[in-house]
Amino acid sequence: MDHIAIDLGSRESQVCVRRADGEIVEERKVGTRSLGKYLAKRPRSRVVLEACAEAFSVADVATGAGHETVVVPASLAPSLGVGERGVKTDCRDARNLSEASCRMSKLPSIHVPAQASRNRKSICNFRESLVETRTKLINSVRGWMRSEGLGVVRSGAPTSFPGRVRAHAAERSVTLPAYVEPVLVVIDKLTVEISVMDDAVKEAAESDPTCRLLMTAPGVGPTVSMRYTAAIDQVSRFPNAHRLQSYLGLTPGERSSSQRKRRTGLTKAGPSKLRRVLIQAAWAARRYYKDDPVVMWSFEVEKRRGKQVAATGLARRLAGILYAMWRDEKPYDKAHQVTRTTQATA
Fold first, then answer.
1. Across-strand partners of 13?
2. What whole-number distance in Å separates Cα of residue 286 and Cα of residue 244?
3. pLDDT exceeds 50 at position 331
């Protein structure tokens, strides 16, 4: 079997092909959009890629052409010779990747999510980008008002912020400068587009059986379910809930050496955006599902460790509960959580 290493670029990619004995048989530049045609003409080989923006789409093409596909984590690539000794060129990187593939029968690879999972992630990312942009503009206007001695506008939802700013200025007989009003107009437009994206996320979640199942858990809505299914992709990838919680960075770390034993805070490994929305789901559950057994457990933790630790612990438990629901294809069962919570506090 040949080993085809591809150093991907936005327009052109460097290809290095080695035989099983390590001999280089081909080196060339190939247009990134033409890689599908190139790989379709090659006999079955191992195709090695470094994780990047184009990696998953090229991996799909390579797998579709019948090749064994390996996407090397970007953090591991330097140990395989990519950028060795501070010298990084496309040709050297492709050579080093192909050489590592020849030497290692089992090359470490990251999971390549299905197209449906990538679509879910994209919807959530674009919605979040709109929200972040609106937040930055609102903060800019707030900062300008304070710098001009206009005080602080009364609190309220982001959707009503432009109207509150205009009313605040009118009460003080202040005319908003020409450079502020366009920002308020953009905030209004962003609010409309965010509402459209919210509807798109909700529609996508409600049309997906797995998302509908996960939304039966307390605090879990369309965004959390979409983020969760997008990041996990295949629940069978994880042997148990503890492994999944570790993957999400919701478990404590450890820095022990010799006689010194030290536990640290959360590792915060894995998808940070999913970890953030799970913590938000935990806060929502604590606010609206106070009689749920799992939430009541978090209130007991709060008495000993405080609110932040209790919410984080609840997020970790939610991640495990969602894993079990998806694995067993069963909706959330409050009665089952009563038993589990009793055992956890015993």
1. 30
2. 23
3. yes
Sign of CA dihedral 217, 222, 228, 230: positive
pLDDT one-digit tens code per residue, 188-209: 999 999 999 999 999 999 999 9
Task: Give the Cα separation of 74 and 97 in Å (integer).
Answer: 12
Please name the residues in contact with 179: beta carbons below 8 A apart, sequence gap of 6 or more.
Answer: none
Q: Which residues contact residue 219 at a Cβ distance below 8 angstroms, ignoring those fewer than 6 apart?
A: 281, 282, 283, 284, 285, 286, 288, 289, 318
Sheet holding 68-72, edge to edge: 24-31, 12-18, 2-7, 45-50, 68-72
Contact status, residue 77 vs residue 50, Cβ threshold 8 Å: yes
Sorted by sequence, the CB contacts under 8 Å of residue 64 that are 6+ apart come out as: none
Q: Is the pLDDT of residue 339 over 60?
A: no
CA 39, 44, 45, 49 torsion-angle sign: positive
Could you tell me how far CA 253 lies from the centroid of its own chain?
Answer: 20
CATH of 2-103, one of 3.30.365.10, 3.40.50.720, 3.40.50.12710, 3.30.420.40: 3.30.420.40
| 243-256 pLDDT, tens digit each | 999 999 999 888 88
* Residue found by looking up tokens 């509807």 in the block: 199
- CA 161, distance to chain mean position in Å, is 29
pTM above 0.85?
yes
Average pLDDT over residues 121-146: 96
